[in-house]
Amino acid sequence: MLNHYYNRFTKKGLLLNSLFLIALSSYGQSANVRGVIKDTTGKGIVGVTIRVKGGVETVQTDSQGNFSIQASPGSTLIITSVGFQEKQITVGQQANLDIALVPAENVLEELVVVGYGSQKRSDITGSVASVPKDRLSKIPVNNVMQAIQGAVSNVTVSQASSIPGDAPSAQVRGRNSINANSEPYIVVDGIPLSRTDGSINDINPNDIESVEVLKDPSAVAIYGVNGSNGVILITTKRGISGKPSIRYSGYGGVENVAHILEPVSGEELLKRYAEYARITNTSLYNGGPVRNQYEYDNYANGVTTDWLDAVMQTGVVQNHNVSLSGGSENAKYFVSGDYLNQKGVLLGYNYKRYSFRTNTDFKATKYLSLGTSSFIVAHNRDGGRANMLQAAAMSPYARMYNEDGSLTQYPMYSEQLWSNPLLPTTLDPQRRQFNISLNGYAELNFGELYKPLAGLKYKLNAGYSYVPVRNNEYEGESVYNFAGLGRITNRETQSYTIENILTYNKDFGKHHIDFTGLYAAKSKYWQEAIATGEVFPNDALGWGNLGAASTQKVSSTADLYRSISQMGRLNYAYDSRYMLTLTVRRDGASVFGRNNKYGAFPSAAAAWNIHNESFMRNTKHIVSNLKWRISYGLSGNEAIGIYQTQFLMNSNPMAMNGLSTTALNIRTLMGNDNLQWEKTKGLNTGIDFRLLNNRISGSIDVYKSSTYDMLLKQLLPKLTGFVDVYSNMGKLQNTGVDLTLNTKNIVKDQFNWSSTLVFSRNKNKITEVYGNGKEDLGNRWFIGQPIGVIYDYTKVGIWQEDEIASGANKGWDDAAQAGDLKLADLNADGKIDDGDRSVLGQTVPQWTAGLTNTFSYKAFTLNVFINTVQGALRNNPQIGGASDEMGRRSTPAALGYWTPENKSNEWRSLGNHSNIHGYGFPSNASFTRLKDVTLSYTMPQQLVEKIGVQGLTVYASGRNLYTWTNWLGWDPEARDITRGSTNDAINYPMVRTYVLGVNLSF
Question: Is the dihedral of CA 62, 65, 66, 68 positive or negative?
Answer without folding.
Answer: positive
